[in-house]
From TrEMBL:
SMART domains: cNMP, HTH_CRP. Keywords: DNA-binding, Transcription, Transcription regulation. The keyword Cytoplasm does not apply. It comes from the Bacteria. Residues 147-214 form the HTH crp-type domain. The lineage of its organism: Bacteria, Pseudomonadati, Pseudomonadota, Alphaproteobacteria, Rhodobacterales. One of its GO terms (molecular function) is DNA-binding transcription factor activity. GO terms for cellular component: cytosol. Residues 14-107 form the Cyclic nucleotide-binding domain. This is Transcriptional regulator. Gene3D superfamilies: Jelly Rolls, Winged helix-like DNA-binding domain superfamily/Winged helix DNA-binding domain.
Amino acid sequence: MRPEDIPEIRTLDLFQNMSDDTFKVLVRGAYVQNFPPQIDLVEEGDPADFLHIVVGGCVELYANWNGRDTTMAMVRPISTFILAATIKDGPYLMSARTVEKSRVVLLPSNDVRTAFEQDGVFARSVVNELANCYRSVVKNTKNLKLRTSLERLANYISRSQIRAGSLEFDLMMDKRRLASFLGMTPENLSRAIKALRPYGVQVDAAKVTITNLEDLNQLARPDPLIDDFSV
């Protein structure tokens, strides 16, 4: 792994408070790879040999069953996946593939588990990271079960607007993946996009323009216990 990659990884909440000695041992066996788009990185059911860190590009986490697949999450820099499988030494519950050209750090899972056992500060950071992941799963489940497809799309656009800091922005994933992520078919997504027009939302290809944010938020009714992933 290149020395210039190390400071970026060190700034992650997961690693920033662990001891220097433990961190040096952890990254000593790591390596970095560049992947083109649409490359499978891990497959659902395989043993978790590595903890992956996305330092460039974008990775889709997805799952499939009985010939159907669904987008679970989109991972962007700088983020890890899939920590729970690494710590538990269990199989991956999701597959991962690159969406665009991506740069990924691979940390051997055995080294991560050794650091977890030997460094108490790192162990607490792991517990905190897993707790955040669990809370995100609960929020996503509430979003899927308590809201209609139109409300889910409205809240996704509302969150995207906050993230972009502008009333004009691009969708962060293509519409097929967005439909899957929001738990609807592409046809339902198309209808929901049209249904948002009276609320001041125009979607042209990947570009979103909001002309009436107040009306959008009245429809979405964002709730920090569902939509704020910092809580």
